[in-house]
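Researcher: Before we compare anything, I want clean individual predictions. No alignment, no superposition, just each chain on its own. First chain goes here; please echo the sequence and then give the structure tokens.
Model: Echoing the first chain and its structure:
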Amino acid sequence: MHSPTAKVSGFVVLMIVQIIFLVLFWLFVRYEKTALPRAIDAEDAGSANEHVSKYPQFQDIQVMIFIGFGFLMTFLRKYGYSATGFTLFMAALVVQWAVLMKGFLHMEGGKISLSLENIIDADIAAAVPLISMGALLGRTTPIQLLCMSIFEVALFAANEYLALHVFSICDCGGSITVHAFGAYFGLAVALMLRPASDQNEAGKLEGASYTSDIFAMIGTTFLWVYWPSFNSVLAEGAGGERAILNTFLSLAAATVTTFVVSALVSHENKLDMVHVQNSTLAGGVAVGTVCNLLLGAHGAVLIGIIAGTVSVLGYRYLTPWMTSNLRLHDTCGVHNLHGMPALISAIASAIYASMATVGDYQSELQDIFPAMVGTNGTETKILGGLGRNATSQAGYQLFGIAVTLLIAIGGGILTGAVLKYTNFRNLKKDEHHQDEHYWEVPAVENKEE
């Protein structure tokens, strides 16, 4: 059990981190011009209005992060306080850290500009450690989550900058830089924290109840409804509308496919709530990288069908195999919801990039594939971009996911080693998946097994 002194020390550390953030904001962060009072004779408020117009989508993403992710992880019957509470804590922490880390890579005059778009970017970044938390749910302490988040967001910001600004890949909905990174970073940490071979069986509280599964479905529903906003918020022009349309169709197709495949592979051909809670969302991940491309309605539906099928099969067969053979406990199955669907999205992005031409995308090409500016699909003419042809862009899409996996897995292994072999306290087997170590739980709950 945790000593009161150790708990107090841990929360003091959390407050110290918040104070450090305060100092960094004071030193480096300033409002962007659009957030400052305009001069009396100023006429152009277009840029400010554009930022404000994104506020509805910002609200949608807030709902996804703070409600969707939080309630999706309440399926553990004795971990509801921690699932929702630690989600709120981590997201609030990471949003601040992401503003700073991503801002340091785009400083002007030694200062970080703060706008609504920066906060939206930071909210999206908050999804990364929350995805990783899903792989470790119920098996880490708050101070371990803090440490993981600090390391992970720093690596995420560097990898995203590398992928989007150096490799110049297309990743509108973040399936490569957000979902793949978060999933495989979390899995690498989980691998380092895996139990001894004689303690590999599931914990006594590592399961759902009828009530906890219903609460988890609330999270699923919120994520499903608002996912088109997540994928489209950073899209430009008509690409934003395509992102909404493609995401919705892919989610719908994945949902139908999930119900069918779940009934086919589950015991007694009954629906499995784990599949319905998670695999129905796989279409949103799988279409993320390509959501603003010219997929056609049939392309979006096909991606959703593939994602739903792969996700359900992963939950049914791959996750148990990983647990029994690798001792890798992926509590929420992030490999099936975020990892493999993100790989599908990366492969799809290479396929569609290889077919991209100026004739198809017209003026939008410079927003979607900026490195291809000046190409006509076959002949390369360097006119402001890097002058790639479609085949080269497809290669860079695959290179982007490969580097992302390398950084995520490598960073996760190093972070897991720090959490395991330094002075961080690791929870014991009988302490997993229960709230009472960090929360005041009603007495009636403590008496239940």
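Researcher: Okay. Second chain, same rules.
Model: Second chain and its structure:
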Amino acid sequence: LTAMAEQQQQFYLLLGNLMSPDNNVRKQSEETYDTILGQTKITFLLQAIRDASAAEEVKQMAAVLLRRLLSSSFEEIYPGLTLEMQTVIKTELLTSIQHETSPNIRKKVCDIAAELTRNLIDDDGNNQWPEVLKFLFDSVNSDSVNLRESALHIFWNFPGIFGNQQQHYMEVIKRMLVQCMQDQANPQIRTLAARAAASFVLSNESNTALLKHFADLLPGILQAVNESCYQADDSVLKSLVEIADTAPKYLRPNLEATLQLCLKLCADTNLTNMQRQLALEVIVTLSETAAAMLRKHTAIVAQSVPQMLAMMVDLEDDDDWAMADELEDDDFDSNAVAGESALDRIACGLGGKIILPMIKQHIMQMLQNRYAMLPATLSDKWPQTSPRPSKRNSMTR
């Protein structure tokens, strides 16, 4: 027992050195870590995660390494473990989620549980870890906000967790998400439930019947997009961009509400530039992935054009910028570049015949606005030989 405790302490030291700012110390520690057998790694990493006396950064490092180990080397390590060891891993993970007091570590342990489940769905879609499903159902109905959060986080991370039982549990899944999206007392539960619902939709993008069945969850997702944006959280908005990109048909029954919300967020200068650009990205992406659907809502598209034009003239007053030969990295995230890229993409997506009249209608108006004259003023300073380069918006979808 003493020898084991000593080894564990050495392992903690190793975990600490893996985070060392000194390259040599870190490289040496990585080499030592790589020589440890897989089963031994799992044992020590699990102990570190479950050790209440261990420093938070050590537990965090252990959680990251265990998830990475299951992700990259599952087939090499896990099947070779004894049945008893496999059971210990499953039990310890679920126990850790229930008793961990640090939200950060708890979230990382949920990631490990999701990763393990992902690997325990066999070729026929059977989930070889039925206890995790029971844990999910018990947690989502628990009085503990932490446990409800954990259940949603696991489901968000791995929406395929039900395997071939998904159809059987369809109503239960839907009820679980609706119930959590209506949790008035806990905004973080509503946000996480909306992200989980979006993740489930995305993982079933080609299942038309399922998308139709879950269509009535979209208003709740849109509400969570709106709420979370004003809490400085754009995670649900990013999920909406992904849906527009991958499963645009899901938005069809509530397309007008989706577009109106994105238009409102895009126009709100109290939000960050990135949030406003993401809201615009939903509309622009739909012009590329569902042009026919969007052409039925030209009135809303017409309202988005002045937003793009306003972004294009949203230039920071910087004397050096006009003389610069190349754009800085920051410039590619600017409203000016995002607005220009969006207008270009929506014109390509919906066609110039639709967009050009909308642009012409607003240009004259804008030219009378003194603020819109700023680019013309700046152009006097630009060297004729090096016009400002244009580049597509690099915003990640």
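Researcher: What stands out in the second chain?
Model: Residues 384-397 have pLDDT under 50 and may be disordered. Additionally, The two ends are 51 Å apart (CA to CA).
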